[in-house]
Amino acid sequence: MGRRSCGYKQKLRKGLWSPDEDEKLLRYITKHGHGCWSSVPKLAGLERCGKSCRLRWINYLRPDLKRGGFSSQEENLIIQLQSVLGNRWSQIAARLPGRTDNEIKNLWNSSIKKKLMQKGGDPNTHKTLSEAMLSTSTCPEKASRELDTAISLNLKEDSSKPSLIDVSSCRNEKGDDNLNASKTSAHQEFFPNKSFPMNRYPSIQQRPLDSIACLQFPVQNLSHDQLKLDQKGILFEPNKEFNSRTPVPTFSRSFLSAQTDNKIYAGLPFHPMGTFNNIHWDSSNCSGNKSFDSNVFSWGLADGGGSSDKTLQLHSADAETTDIKWS
DNA sequence: AACACACGCAACCGCCGGAGG
DNA sequence: CCCTCCGGCGGTTGCGTGTGT
């Protein structure tokens, strides 16, 4: 016998909601809040199950819902987020204010998926998108459009002296140049256009909703045996999300040198409106670490739109060690 | 005008994990 | 430890509407 659906005990209404039902539910929740959903229908005078009420409220009646079609900016953001988060529609919706997971899921299944396939991409693997992320130079305009809010962590061969990010050529979404650095405390808010000290051990400290990040590698260059195990013996899987509780990935020099374009990309949480949620660059626990030494890193916008220099360049001071770590 | 088909959207279904008894 | 309830989530379904023939 299969699982019973909600409301099996009583004969409850199903299907589309009538304006009268909407009115009752709206009036009740506005006045009392939803509290325990299972008791809502009874208290609101509805012959529905609690689940159905909850869904109706979340997807339709909620006052903060944004009506109307999705903007191309929103669509791009959904594509980016989906490439990082997968089909975690609720998490994607959390980054798009006024949009519901159901709405986004419908959009994806009915529209975006097809568009991606028409472009020759695989909506499941985002192969072409990933390629765009990994090679902005091959199609700068497209990459710029699709990835205008993505962050990349680029690993370059050479090393130089400065230990601070050069933000001189960075722009934010509004086009403001040269945002001032924010580096007054151990915890520094990380925004794509703000600088932070870098000859340190990086960590990402995130609020629960912002808990996902993703390191992405050139797939063709990826070999598991080139990856190290973390301290707990768990293999770090590239191209998969991680958060502050995920074991620390460690990369060997041999692995890094095998990356022909010498780049590692980190997808980070996106702010719904195009700016970034607070990601903290924690330099309080990093003294003495040289993990980033001997390389030049850059955090920045994967812009690629013809500008060669919109990433946040980071130059480390030392030139000795071989590993990169995430604390 | 009638029909078939495609599409978008709202809602349902079933699974899962957490809380509490 | 087991069971039940509940909320949350992602996948799927089915209806209403638009469009083409």
Automatic annotation (TrEMBL):
Supply the alphabetized keyword list: DNA-binding, Nucleus, Repeat, Transcription, Transcription regulation
Boundaries of every HTH myb-type domain copy: 9-65, 66-116
Q: Which InterPro entries match?
A: Homeodomain-like_sf, Myb_dom, Plant_SW-associated_TFs, SANT/Myb
Primary localisation category? nucleus
- Asked if the Swiss-Prot or TrEMBL record annotates the protein with the keyword Transcription, the reply is yes
Q: Which Gene3D superfamilies match?
A: Homeodomain-like (1.10.10.60)
Q: Where in the cell is it found?
A: Nucleus
In this protein, which residues make up the domain named Myb-like?
A: 9-61, 62-112
Q: Which PANTHER family does the record cross-reference, listed alphabetically?
A: MYB DOMAIN PROTEIN 55, MYB FAMILY PROTEIN
Protein name, UniProt field: Uncharacterized protein
Q: From which source organism is this entry?
A: Salix suchowensis
